[in-house]
Amino acid sequence: MNICVIGAGASGCMCAIILARNGHKVTLLEKNHKIGRKLYITGKGRCNLTNAVTGNEFLNNVVNGSKFMLSSETRFNSADTMNFFESLGVPLKIERGNRVFPVSDKSSDIIDALYNELKRQKVDLRLETNVNDIIIDKEKAVGVITDTNEYYDAVVVATGGKSYEATGSTGDGYKWAQQTGHNVIKPVPSLVGINVDDKDIFALEGLSLKNVSVSAWVGGDCIYSSPVGEMLFTSGGISGPIVLTMSAHINRIDAKKVKVCIDFKPSVYEKQLRERIDREISLLGAKQVSSLLEELLPKSICGIVASRIGVLMEDKANQLSAEKRILLAHTLKNFELSVNSYEGFDRAVVTSGGVSTKNISPRNMQSKIIKNLYFIGEVLDVDATTGGFNLQIAFSTAVACASDVKEDK
Question: What residue spans of 295-404 are helical by DSSP H?
Fold first, then answer.
């Protein structure tokens, strides 16, 4: 078959390679001047290309579309992704949280490996080529429109989402999907930082915390609680791994209705923490509240906590009332922030939303509406938490498509 793949990101490159290996004639069209623009910045330039977990653990990290991903993940999982890149000469390593990176810590090694394999498989890679539309004839994809009409036996849309628009993710795939009768779930930024109204924390910009947890609350109900991990204070709010993951679970809720609570001491219950505070005070005696708080928190946070519970850093620790001690323990377990907004697509790691999986076959990613038209990767309404899971979605859907693409007469 003569097949056109639109978009030379992670999913598009993988799909083109597997298609070519399977004997198809493949044309890969990319609007940028090089492939893998978004791959280049993934994992802060190190390229966290998958996560070395079991299938069930992978699916547990898929926020939207886990059932849809079952078939393709079974066909091509994280171990297969690792074997694929190591077979291309890229040695890999597994770091904390089972995150997989190239040993070199260079995303360019992953991109170079893909580029070289595209050439080895004789894929017709055409850079700086804009696709203006998909040609549909009698409810069947028969080609694409670039500068001219180009005809193919099948078309694969791998155009990504809307995150990091500078990399070429401008939502073209959504437009084509809607024009051809597919339902598109409204795209929203995911894996983003959270902006808050609490100006007292703005001075903490750059402070990183380990072994904390966060939770999101709406109207007194906890709608998400994170595992213990790392977070970061920003100029206008919070970010870091556990915050980014939380955003994937709350990004369709009106931000101004959300309260976030930081648990600075997730390993102990509030009652246990209160008992520890009493012990610390008995040891400190007449020393200042500042000394007590510095036993419990990074120094830069202490003044903020003192202000929130209504005490002065210069007060005597042993003069804290029982009520203040209870309030201190509660504040350390429930440091509340009022959410103002979520960061936008320009800061989002991935896009949540996209082509509805109800319109797509999970076996091979073919449209159920238009014959010979396929959608793979981030353009689909499938997204996951941080840690390499979203790239695995790209690779799994690409291989499912490439392994089972056939002309539907």
Answer: 299-309, 322-333, 389-404
Note the pLDDT of residue 130: 96
Residue with tokens 């999982």: 77
Q: Is the pLDDT of residue 44 over 90?
A: no
3-state secondary structure of 393: helix
272 & 380 share domain: no
Q: How many helices (H) and strands (E) does the chain have?
A: 13, 22
Per-residue pLDDT tens digits for 180-231: 999 999 999 999 999 999 999 999 999 999 999 999 999 999 999 999 999 9
Q: Are 88 and 142 in a shared domain?
A: yes
Look up residue 87 and give its DSSP letter. H
Same domain, 249 and 210: yes
Average pLDDT value for the chain? 95
State how far the Cα of 303 lies from the Cα of 305, in Å rounded to an integer. 5
Q: How far apart are the first and last CA of the chain?
A: 12
Same domain for 203 and 65: no
Query: Between the CA atoms of 276, 280, 282 and 288, what dihedral angle is there, to the nearest 10 degrees?
Result: -140
